[in-house]
């Protein structure tokens, strides 16, 4: 399988079988949960297997494992990795094995989300962890370059809009002290464990940068999408201790996040996703209502 082919269910299962055999883990009856940024399988109820979509992703996978082990040492409630040498080379693709948090996908309360983000921001990562710096516009331009499903007009519009956001971003002064960030912090990445405790998951975007990046999605979900109520957002602000919407840079980070979310969706090869992408780009272009954006 070449990298350009991407992961299908069949090819992902072949890679899962190879990864399990190499790791000495029983991969029989592996349950495919989803194929997104990673192909994710549940193994026997207690182990989660994640296989990266790109052959070049070994360094990122290794960093995720190192971050998870550091957070475990700090007794911070996040994904835990299985105690084996990782990542595993699955026929050229990076595979990592994680302890299952729960069989259910039950999300934490907004207060618990704010508490976990606040506590994460109080940690100081050792230099040996080798965390990369947040480089948002390199990330989004790479995502745009890889989005083959966009129409030419939409792609050109998004390139212009990203350039405008970059110019504005370069002049921002961030009120919060920079440090470790999750990079994709929102209620969808904080789930409840079997015992009912909140747990931060998906450490793919973990890095060092402005803490405001971990606050913008909750504000965006409330202010533009209506996915959180006013009461929920006020709870988030009260628990964390800072309201990003009172900072002039909020509009810039929110505009970036809208495009980033749309480009992530543009990478999904389905008619439903393509239709949603067209709707989103039209709303960004015209300043239209975002409350009919479907969550993916």
Explain briefly what this protein structure is:
The chain has 296 residues and is α+β, with helices and mostly antiparallel strands. Helix content is 43%, strand content 13%.
Query: How much β-strand is present in the residues?
Result: 5-15%
Q: What Rg do the Cα atoms give?
A: 19 Å
Give the number of helices. Answer: 9
What average pLDDT do the residues reach?
93
Q: Strand arrangement, largest sheet?
A: 1-2-3-5-4
- How many DSSP E strands? 9
The N- and C-terminal alpha carbons lie at a distance of 27 Å
Q: What summary fits the major beta sheet?
A: 5 strands, antiparallel
The quaternary state of the protein chains shown equals single chain
Please estimate the helix content: 40-55%
- What overall geometry do the principal axes of the alpha carbons give? globular
Overall SS class = alpha+beta
The topology string of helices and strands comes to HEEEHEEHHHEEEEHHHH
**Spans of at least 5 consecutive residues with low confidence:** 1-5
Mind explaining what this structure looks like?
It is globular and about 50 Å long. Helix 3 packs parallel to helix 7, helix 6 crosses helix 8 and helix 8 runs antiparallel to helix 9. The longest helix is centred in the middle third of the chain and has 19 residues. The protein has about 300 residues and is α+β, with helices and mostly antiparallel strands. The protein contains nine helices and nine strands.
